Amino acid sequence: MTDQPQQSSSGRPRRGPRRDHGFRRSRRPDRSGPAERRGEYAGKALVVIPTFNEAENLPRLLPRIFQQNKAFHVLIVDDNSPDGTAEIVKKMQGSNDRVHLLERPRKMGLGTAYVAGFKYAIQKGFDHVFEMDADFSHNPKALNDLYSAASKDYDLVIGSRYKSGVNVVNWPMKRLLLSYYANVYTRIVTGMPVRDATSGFKCYRRKVLETLDLDAIRSNGYSFQIETNFWAWKLGFKVGEVPIVFVDRRVGVSKMSKAIVHEAAFMVWKLKFRSIFSGPPHRTTAR
Ligand SMILES: Nc1nc2c(ncn2[C@@H]2O[C@H](COP(=O)(O)OP(=O)(O)O)[C@@H](O)[C@H]2O)c(=O)[nH]1
Ligand SMILES: [Mg+2]
After folding, report:
1. pLDDT in tens, 24-43
2. How far does the centroid of ligand 2 lie from the alpha carbon of residue 81, in Å?
3. Rounded to an integer, what distance in angstroms lies between the CA atom of residue 54 and that of residue 90?
4. Least reliable range by pLDDT among 53-67, 82-96, 130-144, 207-221
């Protein structure tokens, strides 16, 4: 294994950004550079963090994220956490216009939380969009590594635990083996050249999220990560990995469950067959 970012592309012709998705309509030719686009958030990146009971973590996490880069904003997608996570976010919004909040009425799962965050990012015109956990498993310092890889080399960058050896701290051996072999299994079934397809620490260029039909992605948990990577790759986007160190949460409770593992085990076969018979779910343009 090398330390170089890994490039993977399906070799299909790359589709350009689609602009008929209802968020942004313009008849001008696309010159995707931030300078050509208007809007407050052009040239900025949105870190989407789904939360359920993360009141203890957020007040420490958000300042660490903002320190890394002036371009970073944060969107918390909170599912009515009983511990008052949303109230804490609202207080932080009072003194910081880089804090954004989406409140949902009840616990609705990680996949739909990300999709809601992605739509928000597209609508506001952010150029890059991160996925990140609230529990310090993902080190804010690594955000800039992902960001620079997504600004230069790749359309989708995955923060990878298995890119250079195994970089996981504090996980019981059982969970580590499950995660590692789940990734081997995913790679064999799908053929996708990604070592850590279930990572939830990622950076997308906006055009990937604009091209994918987000409403067609229904999976949650690990499946959601596999599915978004797979379709981005099948659509011809450049998918790369940069090594990260993943540290298990010290505060709060994990969402890991057997159902999430089973969902992922079936999902990879569904993806494979769907890619053969109907192709990636992308937004259609009137031609
Ligand atoms: N909005 C929302 N966030 C969730 C949900 N489930 C988990 N999260 C958040 O998703 C992130 C990852 O969850 P976590 O429990 O740490 O998963 P693990 O690291 O795979 O064990 C954390 O920021 C959680 O607060 C959910 O149903 N809705
Ligand atoms: Mg976690």
Report:
1. 333 344 445 544 456 889 99
2. 16
3. 14
4. 207-221
- DSSP three-state, residue 8: strand
Tokens standing for 214?
A: 């987000």
pLDDT tens digits, residue range 242-257?
A: 999 999 887 777 766 7
Residues within a 6 A CB radius of ligand 1: 49-52, 54, 77-79, 107-110, 113, 133-135, 137, 249, 254-256
Per DSSP, 75 falls in state E
Which residue's structure tokens are 């001008």? 28
Which range (29-33, 60-64, 188-192, 220-224) has the least confidence? 29-33
Q: Which residues pair with 50 in a beta bridge?
A: 77
> From ligand 2's centre to the CA of 252, what distance in Å?
9
Structure tokens at 219: 């999976």
Rounded CA gap, 57 and 67, in Å? Answer: 16
User: For domain 38-277, which architecture applies?
Assistant: Alpha-Beta Complex (3.90)
> What would the two tokens of residue 43 be?
């040239």
The 3-state DSSP class for residue 237 equals: coil
The DSSP letter of residue 169 is E
User: In residues, how long is the chain?
Assistant: 287
Instruction: Locate the DSSP E strands across 92-141.
Output: 99-103, 128-131
- List Cβ neighbours of 81 (8 Å cut-off, separation of 6 or more): 51, 52, 53, 54, 55
pTM of the model: 0.86
Query: What does pLDDT average to over the chain?
Result: 87
Placement of tokens 């804010």 in the chain? 140
